[in-house]
Amino acid sequence: MTAQRACGVGELEQDTPLRVVIDDVAIAIVKDADDEIHAIGDRCTHGDISLAEGFVEGKTLECWAHGSAFSLETGHPLNLPAYEPVPVYVVTIDGDDVLIDPTVIKEV
Fold first, then answer.
1. In this predicted structure, what is the pLDDT of residue 1?
2. d(CA 35, CA 101)
3. pLDDT, tens digit only, all 108 positions of the chain
4. How many CB atoms lie within 10 A of CB 60?
5. Which CATH fold topology does 4-105 show?
């Protein structure tokens, strides 16, 4: 599969997650305070909660329900109760388009 358009760069607000679904894969896209764009799996591994409804702080995305924070760069949880990582996807910017291939997990 090839990368598909997930959203436009202009649709992303700093530190505000955006939920997208590509080929039935839910992904949370975040533009952090450094204007870097990240894409991680949208489901908290602790409670099956949408991470896109959570809170961004620095390079982390915190689940609103139980407080587990996940690294936007590695997908690893930084605190309990989550202990399993979420997938991190490769992000490609093409003009104003954010492209993601949901079948390619970023090597971290």
1. 74
2. 21
3. 799 999 999 999 999 999 999 999 999 999 999 999 999 999 999 998 999 999 999 999 999 999 999 999 999 999 999 999 999 999 999 999 999 999 999 887
4. 19
5. Rieske Iron-sulfur Protein (2.102.10)
Spell out the domain ranges in the chain.
Answer: 4-105
Q: Are 57 and 14 within 8 A, CB to CB?
A: no
Amino acid at 72: L
CA 1 to chain centre: 20
Q: How far apart are the first and last CA of the chain?
A: 21
Q: How far apart (Å, rounded) are the C-alpha atoms in residues 89 and 68? A: 20
Q: Which residues contact 32 (CB under 8 A, 6 or more apart)?
A: 14, 15, 38, 56, 58, 59, 72
CA diameter of the chain: 39
